[in-house]
Amino acid sequence: MSMSTPPPPRQVPGSAGPDSPFATEAARAGALRRMKRLATGLLVLMTAVFVVAFSLQESIPWMGYVRAAAEGGMVGALADWFAVTALFRRPMGLPIPHTAIIPRKKDQIGESLGEFVQENFLSDAVVGRKLKDLRFARTAGAWLATPAGSERVAKEAATAVRGALEVLDDRDVLALLESLARKHMLAPEWSSTLGRILRTVVQDGHHRQLVDLLADRAADWVAANRGTVIGLVAERSPHWVPNVVERLLAERIHRELSAFVEAVRRDPHHRVRGSIDAWLQDFARDMQSKPETIAKVERLKHSLLGDPQLQELAATGWSSMKSALVEAVEHPESELRRSFVRAVAEFGLRLTADQALAGKVDAWIANAGLYLVATYRGQIAGLIQDTVSHWDGEETSRKLELQVGRDLQFIRINGTVVGALAGLAIFTAATLLLA
């Protein structure tokens, strides 16, 4: 009688013991083979004892007890071998009904396993209790506060940013920017808003520094361009005016112009400054109420934002910004990278020291976990069912036997021992009662 064994598993390097959840298939297969040899060895031992005792029981009366024990052990060993083997395959290849249960019932097993996991491991009570016991905020905070933790987060974030920027198509980004600009910049009417801003600026006197700057520049230009002013006067004077008169007139105009500009620059209440204030106030009012002015401002807006050079500048700016951002997040010594590392470490310290913040984070994680489980527990159970349904029947049987087959061999061993004791007890009782 041969005891069928599963095909040798794929050899995967590893050192975990066969009882470890991380044990490799090779380790489990080795442990299963050893237990099968032990259980089969007991059957062979019982068979040998039975043969010897059966042949000597006529001459040695007490050998009958040994024969009965060995006979019971053989029956128990064979019965349990059949029961264990029938789970995974047909014993000795015979088409016996209700054998090879796992290969034949693979889909039902996957469905039951998925339902079992969904009801017993993915229930709100189980998941909520586990998430509450994790105390994720303190553990994560302690790790983030360490240099290794904050650097690791910064490194992973840099990888994510670089990957996101590499995936983004520059044309798509520019198209998005253009779409946003049209929606939020071109579509709204600017004139009224700019008019209100200009009115506020003039009322608060913020424009006076610009007027001071213009006056200073004008005074500096007049002082530095005396020859230009004299030449302009000479060009525009009548031809019949004597040169001496032109010269004297040009000098006088330059002196008056210099005195005028200097007066504007020095006197904060000069009438020119007042005229500028009045003109700006009128222009601010016209931008809010005068249709002609509003139309001019809108045409200027569209002209500026639709300029091809501005679009080219946006494309160049995005390319430069992307390159600078990638370089900054990847370089360990960049200010952006160091600032991010410090922020992560400080957040970790807050998680460990601030009980209220840690409680909020733990509550948020628990709520998020419960939401995900409640939303996707059906899909998780379905994943288990689909995975098992796509397994080959023999492969499924082999996988399950590697997981639990070693422990099932103890059933064979116990069956051998219990069968031997039962056979001995029955023979002894019969001998005492019927002798």
UniProtKB/TrEMBL annotation:
Coiled coil: none annotated. Residues 1-11 have a biased composition (Pro residues). Residues 1-20 are annotated as: Disordered. The keyword Transmembrane applies. Keywords: Membrane, Transmembrane, Transmembrane helix. The chain crosses the membrane at residues 38-56, 413-434. This is Membrane protein. One of its GO terms (cellular component) is plasma membrane. Signal peptide: none annotated. InterPro entries: DUF445.
